[in-house]
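Comment thread on ticket #2218

A.B. wrote:
> Attaching the input chain for the structure job we discussed in standup.
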Amino acid sequence: MHAAIVLALVCGLGACGAALPPPQSSGQQNLTNIEQIQTAIQNTLAAKQHLHGTAYCPTTVPALTGETFSCVVAIAGHRPAIFTVTEVNSSGDVTYAGSPG
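C.D. wrote:
> Ran it. Output below, let me know if you need it in another format.
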């Protein structure tokens, strides 16, 4: 009976096959230099902390001045490092800050 209540709640919240409409395109440009940002974060971590890892940033980020997003760096034998990236302009120039976890 308890499982039936949980199932009813989940279905009531729209998780039982309800289709969501596709996202609408706003015509907004996205950053095209995500790979370069990931590489820069990896290089900074290696140079300043002597740690080598792989950075993972969102693949789609709107190109908006002031926009922020996070990148996670997987480092063998360490907790992941989180870097906050801030867009300086819509041309893809960014600043970032973070440290190993």
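A.B. wrote:
> Thanks. Noting for the ticket: Residues 52-101 form one domain.
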